[in-house]
Amino acid sequence: MKLPTRQRGGTVLPGLVGTARVERRTRALLPRLRPGDIAVVDHTDMDRGTAQSLLDAGVAAVVNAAPMISGRYPALGPVLLADGGVLLVDGIGPEGFAALRDGARVRLHDGVVHVGEQAVTSGRALEAADVRAEMDQARSGLASQLETLTHNSTEFLRREEDLLLHDRGLPRTATRLAGRPVVIVADGPEAAAELRLVRAFLREQQPVLIGVERGAELLRAAGHRPHVVVLDARTDEGARPAVKTLKAARDVVVRVDRGGERTVTEHLDRIGIRPLLFETGAMPEDAAVLLADAAEASVIIGVGLRATLEEFLDRQRPGLASTYLTRLKAGPRLVDAHAVPHLYSGRVRPRHLYLVMLAGLVALAAALAVTPVGGEWVDSLRTALTDLVHTLLVTLPVQGPLP
Hints:
Helices cover 43% and strands 18% of the residues. By secondary structure, the protein is α/β, with parallel strands linked by helices. The chain folds into two domains: 5-139, Phosphohistidine domain (Glucose Oxidase, domain 1, 3-Layer(bba) Sandwich), CATH 3.50.30.10; 169-343. The strands form three sheets. It has an eight-stranded mixed beta sheet, with helices on both faces. Strands 15-14-13-12-11-16-17 form a seven-stranded parallel beta sheet, sandwiched between helices. It has a two-stranded antiparallel ribbon with strand order 1-2. Helix 2 packs parallel to helix 3 (77-83), helix 6 (142-159) packs across helix 15 (318-330) and helix 17 crosses helix 18. The longest helix has 24 residues, at 372-395. The radius of gyration is 31 Å and the shape is elongated. The relative contact order is 0.09. This is Putative membrane-anchored protein. It comes from Nocardioides panaciterrulae.
């Protein structure tokens, strides 16, 4: 969406014009964005989930102080934004970021950011072809990323040994999870579509529903009430589910960093919600998986969770080890939503049994009809039906024409 602008004297300058919304933390910026805004962030290797949120907010452009793709791995966010028609400018640096004021009217043209008629800062203007070329180059960095993942996983396991190996430190939910199917819904880029894939499973199996942050709103929008809502203490209040969604849940679990401030629950206390604290360094969706796995759920269906290698790496560095080790711990219990339609065809309904019985009776009648005894029965039945029809035609009064 490219909007022209008119300057003094009626001169129309080229480029895209919009209101700059400036915030280093992209997640904190999302609730303030309006259609046509220009998001100014400092986000290295933008992930797919954040990019989808920017697209949903209707931004016209994203100006990034950091590189969209650093080369460490092929980040999936930039290509999603470029394909969605969003203008991309990156590499303006800390000085350029500091020069842009939140709420200012700015114009972008060829990677240069103007305020009024003055060029304030500049960066690289990225087209879709440029993004794809950089993604191809970044794939060579996957090996080093996997080496880093190995080191981080060792450190994460050391810090979370009691939780991962002995299930210590888990909150006790009022919702019973043991032996029941559990569906965990996170706010992934394809979560809404994946939720539609498991509609039959939700309707017929009545699983426990766990909404992770905005995933709880996806459940409500689809007509389901989440039984458990998992929140992250680091998420701003404006990005959390609505109060009515939180109050409708039986359990609200807040993930807090080990040794971190616990005053984050004061807002929930003020609105009448007494949350359960889950002290861990795991990501919130991983904390939800750990809750269900430790409670020995019969199966865990993941909606909006990252499944492929690129999606797995396409997230902030602290979450890599958390997701990796959580998936290993859940093991065969965890099933991706895309696999459910192939594994679950639906519960057997009464009409299915009636159809089978009817088919069996037809087959039995056909088999009997070709035997001597069956032939006699058919002849007797035909004669009886003929006599019955004759009797009805003779005894029933013939009704004359209406006056």
